[in-house]
Structures are given as C-alpha cells and as structure tokens.
C-alpha cells in the first residue's frame, strides 16, 4: 500500500496490508503502536527515503511549518521501524522526483545506513528480504541452485555503504556482463 500519513499506515496495517511503500511524512508513530502492529501482522516497509527527501524539499517550502517531518525525523522513524523488528525493503519509487530505476537505489541504501540500520541489514533489504516477501523464485541469496546475478565491488559496503557504487564486475546468470 502506498501511504504518506501515519494514520493511513496504521489503518491499512490494521486491515491486513502486507507492506507499505513510503514511510509516513506527517507525524511520528509511537514505538508502542509499531510493536502492536508487528504483533498482529507480518508486514514490511519500503521507506523510499530518497523519494521523501526529494519530494518533501519542495512541498515543505509552501506548507505550514511543522506539517511534515524533517528528513532527520523521517530517518528516525525508519530506525524505529527497524528497532521494532519490522523488515525493511529497499526501494525508490521511480520515476517520482526524477529518480532512476538503477543507481539511485545506491542512494537509498546509503540513506538507510545513515538512519542507523546496520550495513548487513541494509544489504539484505535489497537482496534476501524482498525475495522472502515476493514469489520471485530462487534469487536474493547466494546459494547453490539460485540465480547467479551478482555485483562485485572493489570496496566493502559493510565498512561504508557509499562503497556500494564501487562496481568492478556484474554477473548475470553466472556470466560476466560487459560494461561500458
């Protein structure tokens, strides 16, 4: 479900939604509310922090002060979601705000990391976690019998998530793909 308001997030989750696209932008959700929602439903949240940051930059200029959470407050809400044990899936919701379908995902991963999500969990948010929620077949994990679509990096994103953009080689179905 696409949402932008905290009350809408609560309402659709109480009615059985299995996932949210966007983190709420209008007000903070109490930690206890998140924990209660988690108890009653297995769902994920795709925060789309990059989308929020880009779209809200313009909206905040004409909105009444305090109408929307700041980028820092949105990041804190994402961390609160993680701390409540709710799975996070990386995504950017293109083409909104001029976001591309490829490398802007790297920016999203950096934002998730800056929000306080551990690096390994950020990487899972773009690989194994989506594969666990959607019937995508044998992808999202490095296992025998799984599709070998891989990216080889020259620097470790575990040390710094910005290293996610240090692509050395790309493999599709186990074969190296020529890059320009």
In brief, what are we looking at here?
This protein is of the alpha+beta class. It has helices at residues 6-14, 31-40, 49-62, 71-83, 104-114, 119-125, 128-133; strands spanning 19-21, 44-46, 150-153, 167-172, 175-177. It has one domain (6-137): Metal-dependent hydrolases (TIM Barrel, Alpha-Beta Barrel), CATH 3.20.20.
Averaged pLDDT, please?
94
> Runs with pLDDT <50, length 5+?
none
CATH top level? Alpha Beta
The CATH architecture category equals: Alpha-Beta Barrel
How many DSSP-defined strands?
5
Broad shape? globular
The helix-strand sequence is HEHEHHHHHEEE
Instruction: Write the CATH homologous superfamily.
Output: Metal-dependent hydrolases
Span of the ends, CA to CA: 37 Å
Please describe what this structure looks like:
The chain has 180 residues and is an alpha+beta fold. It has a single domain (6-137), classed as TIM Barrel. The protein contains seven helices and five strands. The strands form two sheets. A three-stranded antiparallel beta sheet has the order 3-4-5, with no helix packed on it. α5 runs antiparallel to α6 (119-125). The longest helix has 14 residues, at 49-62. It is globular. 29% of the residues are buried. The model has no long low-confidence stretch (mean pLDDT 94).
């Amino acid at each position: 479900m696409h949402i932008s308001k905290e009350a809408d997030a609560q309402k659709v989750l109480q009615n059985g939604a299995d996932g949210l696209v966007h983190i709420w932008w209008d007000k903070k959700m109490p930690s206890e509310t998140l924990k209660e929602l988690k108890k009653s439903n297995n769902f994920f949240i795709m925060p789309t922090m990059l989308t929020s940051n880009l779209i809200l930059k313009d909206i905040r200029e004409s909105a009444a002060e305090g109408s929307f959470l700041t980028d820092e407050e949105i990041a804190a809400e994402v961390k609160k979601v993680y701390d409540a044990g709710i799975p996070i899936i990386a995504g950017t919701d293109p083409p909104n705000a001029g976001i591309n379908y490829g490398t802007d995902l790297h920016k999203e991963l950096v934002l998730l990391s800056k929000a306080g999500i551990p690096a390994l969990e950020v990487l899972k948010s773009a690989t194994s976690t989506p594969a666990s929620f959607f019937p995508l077949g044998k992808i999202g994990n490095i296992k025998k019998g799984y599709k070998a679509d891989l990216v080889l990096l020259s620097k470790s994103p575990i040390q710094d998530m910005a290293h996610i953009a240090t692509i050395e080689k790309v493999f599709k179905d186990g074969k190296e793909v020529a890059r320009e």
